[in-house]
Amino acid sequence: MTTEKPLTRNIRPGGPPCNLQEYEKSGGYLGLRKALAGHHQDVVDMVVNANLLGRGGAGFPAGKKWSVVPMGASAPRPKYVVCNFDEMEPGSFKDRFLAEGDPHQLIEGMIIAGYAIEAQIGYIFIRKDYLKAERILRDAINEAYSKKYLGQDILGSGFNFELHLHGSAGRYICGESSALLNALEGGRAIPRSRPPHMSSVGLWGKPTVVNNVETICNVPHIAANGPEWFKGLSYTDEGGTKIYGASGRVRTLGAWELPMGTPLREILEDHAGGMQEGYEFRGVMPGGASSEFITTEHLDARMDFASMRTVDSHLGTGTLIVLDDRNCPIGMVLSLQRYFSRESCGWCTPCREGLPWIVQMLEALEEGRGTMEDIEILKSHTRLLETGNTFCTLAPAAMFSLESALRHFSEDFEEHVKKGRCPYKS
Amino acid sequence: MLTVEERRDIEEEIRKAPTMKAAVIDVLKTVQKHRGWVPDEALEEAAALLGMTAAEVDSIATFFSLIYRKPVGRHVILICDGVSCWLVGYEDVKQRLMERLGIAPGETTGDGKFTLLPSACLGVCEEAPAMMIDDRLYTKLTPDSVDEILAGYRDDN
After folding, report:
1. Which of A92, A248, A345 sits opposite B88 (nearest CB)?
2. A188, A331, A332 member nearest B63 (Cβ)
3. Is the pTM here over 0.95, yes or no?
4. Number of A:B CB contacts under 8 A?
């Protein structure tokens, strides 16, 4: 275990982005040179052995995603690498932090990912409101073209790779990787049925890999320093560091790069500085809006994908949303469910119809019109909208907060019914 | 109905795109950049240039929340209603905006100056609560800072 911070070493919060000269000076594009000197398969193997798990929230092994792409002369072409920068998960801001601070890290990662799967074309799909990040990336891509890191015959290797930036126009569902591909093709951003998997039949029907910004940003470091070094950055067998963050009534809001598997308590107390004066801790969603509440009993759990599952939650994006004692847990869940309900693409019935119904019941509880039966109906919805009953994971992930709130804050739900009002409102 | 300049910008977007249809979002954004929103006539003409039916383009225009199919004010306020903002004072900020503007989310002021829209999490949770007015981001909002910010638009017609 080391205390290295490869992802944020060049980032000056509040300052200008790291430019190309500074990036090269810090060892930037060295990973690309090393990757291009070897075989495509060597890069894939390195990422597999590094055990880099997808940082968008699902934690799927990035190397495994890459290793199933059809390779060789008979593979369909062109192949695509797509970076999912549609960061709209409530509570999450880590991808913006990375791309605004060190854009070439992301660009280098895209080129190496492209080389690994023999892709010719890359897209960075960015949400519309990330105007600053879009401007920074556009400038950095131009810099990379001018230095032959992008385009034809990159660094004399014979490898060609074009990188495009696509600015979106709103809608959280674009972050679902197959919906994102539909948006890139100029369609409605609704999820696709799988199989076929995108690795074989993706963008315009061609083999495609979609990875999150933070995932891609790790790739240059793995290529430069190898999988063993990468695994050594972590407290657990899930390789690398992780960008954690915190929002809510904590003392210090922000994002911090720490070893993967850093205990939740350490992030909350040492980095976020604990609760603000006058506020007590009630619970925390460890991984953004699509994760389950954790209460004091599990604060010593490690923040990695496997450990979070053992305490009935998800690492998700690793950005904590902290609930204090002066905000109503039902009000908070209502805020979350309104969000998911509005952002549902409407493609499948349980999500389109179920989420608004949940919102109505939570509104009734908050306004003092709720009944004990409503609480039971809410519980049944957490099962009706679970994985397997919907087209994608939007609705099942929306149920994480509701299900865990019903479990941890059952007394609050019942008090709303018994008192006929929200006890948090004066 | 499309001006020469709009048509030229739209054709440029279509030329840059890998397929004509793939340009649809950039084309709609181009119309919006010129007009503030996407009227029916402009959508129909843009669809013809894209080789798509107007219905298909409309199905996309209405899907994406930041493409406006109704007129908006000269300034669009996007107030973040993500949970991180909710926890630290979103309701008070929204209330102040509604009072000062005299409108609810989804509405435009009578003088056509401001439209207030709810927005998906703006991704600045470490500086919550947040809103955007046009291309400008405002963070760490309080009801009082909302007053100050709106005052900055007083002479702006």
Report:
1. A248
2. A188
3. yes
4. 132
Q: Residue A302 corresponds to which tokens in the numbers above?
A: 């490690």
In three-state secondary structure terms, A174 is helix
Question: What is the band of B155 on the pLDDT scale with cuts at 50, 70, 90?
Answer: confident
| Angstrom distances, CA of residue B16 to CA of A183, B9, B13 | 17, 11, 5
Distance from C-alpha of A60 to C-alpha of A215, rounded to nearest angstrom: 10
Classify residue A350 by burial, with Cβ atoms within 10 Å: 0-12, 13-18, 19+.
Answer: middle
What's the complex ipTM?
Answer: 0.96
Q: B125 and A319: CB-CB below 8 Å? A: yes
Residues B125, A345: C-beta atoms closer than 8 Å: no
Which of the residues in chain A have pLDDT under 70? Answer: 1-2
Residue A13, domain member (yes or no): no
Q: State the nearest Cα–Cα gap between A187 and chain B, in angstroms.
A: 6
Architecture in CATH of B4-61: Orthogonal Bundle (1.10)
The β-bridge partners of A323 are A283
CB contact under 8 A, A248 and B29: no
Classify residue A16 by its DSSP letter: P
Residue of A nearest to B50 (CA): A186
Report the distance separating Cα A362 and Cα A422, nearest Å: 11
Residues of A in contact with B137 (CB under 8 A): 132
Q: Over the stretch A62-100, which tens digit does the pLDDT of each residue have?
A: 999 999 999 999 999 999 999 999 999 998 999 999 999
pLDDT in the model for residue A119: 98
Q: Which two tokens stand for residue B65?
A: 């929340």
Q: What is the 3-state secondary structure (H, E, C) of A62-104?
A: HHHHHHCCCCCCCCCCCCEEEEEECCCCCCCCHHHHHHHHCHH
Chain A residue with minimal CA distance to B52? A186
Q: Which of A166, A171, A338 sits opposite B65 (nearest CB)?
A: A171
Whether residues A110 and A32 share a domain: the answer is yes
The C-alpha atoms of residue A197 and residue A328 are separated, in whole angstroms, by 42
> The domain B75-151 is classified under which CATH number: 3.40.30.10, 1.10.3720.10, 3.40.630.10, 3.40.190.10?
3.40.30.10
